[in-house]
Amino acid sequence: MATDPRRKPEAARGAAASRSPWRQQAESYLNHHRKVARDSAARLWRNPVASSMTWAVMGVALALPVALLLLLTSLEGVSAGWESSARVTAYLELELPEDRARELREEIASDGRVTEVELVSRDQALAEFRTSSGLKEALDYLDDNPLPHTLLITPEQGARSQAGVEGLVSFIQAMNGVERVQVDLGWLQRLNAMTDLLARAVWALSLLLAAAVVLVIGNTVRLSIESRRDEILVAKLVGGTDAFVRRPFLYTGAWFGLGGGVVAFILLQLSLWWLSGPIERLAGLYRSEFMLNGLNVDGALALIIVAMLLGWLGAWVAVKRHLDDIEPGEIAGG
Amino acid sequence: MIEFRQVTKRYDSDHTALRQVNFGLDRGELAFLTGHSGAGKSTLLKLIMVMERPSAGELIVGGQVLNRLPRRQIPYIRRHIGVVFQNHQLLFDRTVYDNVAMPLEVMGSSPRDTGRRVRAALDKVGLLSKEKMNPMQLSGGEQQRVGIARAVVNKPPVLLADEPTGNLDPALSADIMNLFGQFSQVGVTVLIATHDIALINEMGRRTLTLDHGRLIAGGQPFAGGASGH
């Protein structure tokens, strides 16, 4: 840090630090970081009311998008669950003999993506249709059975995604003797489209709120820069680099972020606890396995780290904007 | 150590603070800078501190031309220049010790080294016993001495002082001037801006006199970095 690339020969005696080995330099650099980190944390602690207000604002702004994200992942879990009911129906060609239909069944059943294949022969189908449709008399007028053999295919767990099912469909479609393959994914696609839309909305909201957090921290740090004006002036006067002068404020921003992240986490857990009862009842009424998942340890850590980064970024914005304005020029009066 | 070559500082078209100032100060030289108020004393000091840049001419401190020094190099230049202000610019939110330690802190010196040097500087100005006090508890003369300790704690080759005795009574002023004399004896180039004529006469040192931005006395030909005393 203190090594001056253009050190003057006369200055050598005045700069013992620049002669010390780099190890010692690195050590004192780290020491300084530790000291500044501690010092800026202590400053926040000394103004508990102002600091906790900032933390609360940050917490609310962060909790909102995270709550929506959690809701979204829970919804995606639901749609994944419902995908298990997705069944592929393959209608075989009308003239296909039953032996050939059985062969096809074997062939499809041997595919890794399929757990079960049920063959519904045309006679069986007609009989079922007769009983279930109430068109008994109408069917009697027909000379031939109009229904083909049908295969009911249940995809394997891993193939139950939309892409997996589509792959399976095109595979069966390509087989000889298959007339038409049908899969009722329409409602699933609609649900997916809705969750996609919701996801975008959540991300947009997250971006806006992240920007708000950056601005709030930026403003708070700006005030802190103003209140430490003298210190900044003196630091610049005695040869503090920009990085040196910036450092305490960047730490301040990061600490604001840490507090904000923790507040957001607490808010999330509280509202989850408050909502869990009604959600369980509602899900029970729908016989759904829907569950609103809370944050796990990784998620909580990620939330706090993102909050700290946002705080740091906000401080950076303020520092960039205001620190250059403070130049020691005005100290030495007329 | 310090060399002004035809240095002009113009703030705007109708205000020229310094006009073609020429002078040189050698290592270990102690000089006064005087002149009526508004004559350009502070501007001259600010130029050395790189708080301002010359409009024309060349300014060399410690062998470095400051005119076109990149902005990010400025801190490293300032580490080699100690400055004492009339209003001492001490921070009242920390102890005397921490105030004096600031120049070392920005250089990233080790705590052990810092302790040793701060105590040496405080000892030099006779305030070793007050290191734990807040500067607010000290008298004006003592505060000024803390300011001097801070200016010399990292042993800069150049020491500037802007009206260092402005608020002090004659006895205290003489004390402080004595200190400056001692620093120059160990090779520090000292430049003191003051209009305390009595004090200047008493010291009998080289005096640079500014009048409306012109150097009218004491501006001897460049001493140059090489010519010694």
Which whole number gives the mean pLDDT of chain B? 86
How would a textbook summarize the main sheet of chain A? 4 strands, antiparallel
Low-confidence stretches of chain B: 221-229
CA-CA gap between termini of chain B: 12 Å
Radius of gyration of chain B: 17 Å
- The secondary-structure element order of chain B is EEEHEEHEHHHEHEHEE
Task: Tell me what portion of residues of chain A adopts beta-strand conformation.
Answer: 5-15%
Largest sheet of chain B: 6 strands, mixed
Report the principal-axis shape of chain A: elongated
- Side by side, the strands of the main sheet of chain A go 2-3-1-4
- Number of helices in the DSSP assignment of chain A: 10
Using a beta-carbon cutoff below 8 angstroms, give the protein chain pair with the largest interface and the number of residues from each chain.
A-B, 43 and 44 residues
- Which stretches of chain A are low in confidence, meaning pLDDT under 50 for 5 or more residues running? 1-18
Total number of strands of chain B: 10
Proportion of residues in extended strands of chain B: 25-35%
As a percent range, the share of helical residues of chain A equals: 55-70%
> Judging from the principal axes of the Cα atoms, what is the shape of chain B?
globular
Structural class of chain A: alpha+beta
Describe the structure.
The complex is a heterodimer of chains A (334) and B (229). Chain A has 334 residues and is of the alpha+beta class. Chain A folds into 2 domains: 33-81 and 190-329, no CATH class; 87-183, Alpha-Beta Plaits. Chain A is 66% helix and 7% strand. Chain A is built from 10 helices and 4 strands. Chain A is elongated, with a radius of gyration of 34 Å. The model of chain A is unreliable at 1-18 (pLDDT under 50). In chain B, 33% of the residues lie in helices and 26% in strands. Chain B is globular, with a radius of gyration of 17 Å. In chain B, 50% of the residues are buried. Chain B has helices at residues 41-48, 74-78, 96-107, 111-124, 140-152, 170-185, 197-203; strands at 2-12, 15-25, 30-35, 56-61, 64-65, 81-84, 158-162, 189-193, 206-211, 214-217. By secondary structure, chain B is of the alpha/beta class. At the A-B interface, helix 1 and helix 8 of A face helix 1, helix 2 and helix 3 of B.
